[in-house]
């Protein structure tokens, strides 16, 4: 009787593992499709003669006067690509997923989709403080959801055995620049669109600092192990 119960528990565990692996594949496909749609949507925000109602005579004026829109679109594209890279890092060592982890991952992507929505509104209503702040807020939410999903995956044994403890810890640090910079840009919206837009350049020094932190941490770990 005890042997049968043990076998049943083992089979159930294997069934859960198999289910989680298949669910991970489906989740990864859905997320990649959503990222592709977001990138496509950003390109549709560019001025369009049929939609915006301008002709050949107004073409030069529209292109020169829409520089801020182009800047916002480029920043949006860069940020979406950064978050897509973040998603690849999060999924790279996952062995399986479960309902809660999948929910966190989808909420992260939905936060980015809301960010794209406010980018579209920002392209139509330039200089609205609330729209800029909502973009910053939803990017921050997406970033911190990524940190949460990684933490949950580590604590609930959803990863393969490949990543070391140091690599797991390092990824926490690597996930932080985007949401931190998003929070820093939030108050810059009150200064103006220019200051808010330039604020995203903080990704460069913050990313450099994070890279140095990870490198230094790795060196210290190697020194201790030696």
Notable characteristics:
226 residues, mainly alpha, 10 helices, disordered N terminus
Question: How would you briefly describe this protein structure?
Answer:
Residues 1-12 have low confidence and may be disordered. Helix 1 (2-43) runs antiparallel to helix 4 and helix 1 (2-43) runs parallel beside helix 5 (99-124). This protein has helices spanning 2-43, 49-52, 59-65, 67-92, 99-124, 129-155, 165-174, 177-185, 193-199, 203-225.
Molecular structure report:
The structure is a single chain. By secondary structure, the chain is mostly helical. It has helices spanning about 1-45, 50, 60-65, 65-90, 100-125, 130-155, 165-175, 175-185, 195-200, 205-225. It is globular and about 60 Å long. The chain starts with a helix and ends with a helix.
Instruction: Count the E strands.
Output: 0
Shape: globular
* Overall average pLDDT: 80
Low-confidence stretches: 1-12
Biggest sheet details: none
Helix share of residues? over 70%
- How many helical stretches? 10
| Span of the ends, CA to CA | 51 Å
Which structural class is indicated by helix and strand composition? mainly alpha
| Beta-strand percent range | under 5%
Order of helices and strands: HHHHHHHHHH
Over the alpha carbons, how many angstroms does the gyration radius reach? 22 Å
Topology:
Blueprint: H1 2-43, H2 49-52, H3 59-65, H4 67-92, H5 99-124, H6 129-155, H7 165-174, H8 177-185, H9 193-199, H10 203-225
